Fold this protein.
Amino acid sequence: MPCTRAMTDAEINGEYERETGRVIAETFRGRDPASLCAVLVRSHGPFTWGEDPEAAVMSAAVLEQVAFMAYNTLALAPDTGPISHALLARHYLRKHGPGAYYGQK
């Protein structure tokens, strides 16, 4: 799940809504926003989207479940570190990459 950088004081005190959008767009630079329909804005909260309102709600429900699993993982094992880049890439690319072979394409 991508997370934005912290917004600067100037961004917060300026055109806040526009700057929030810019920080989200910055976070997705080089990524396909349709492939992962959610982002966490640091110190703010989640944003989700989809092809239609129902898909956006589904993205929100999936994000909520991911957050629930992450919370429980850390509650049970506080020293759990992040997933390795190799494992994260493998799980993502086998379903969504150019050579996708597992599940949805």
Summary: The chain has one domain: 9-96. DSSP finds four helices and two strands in the chain.
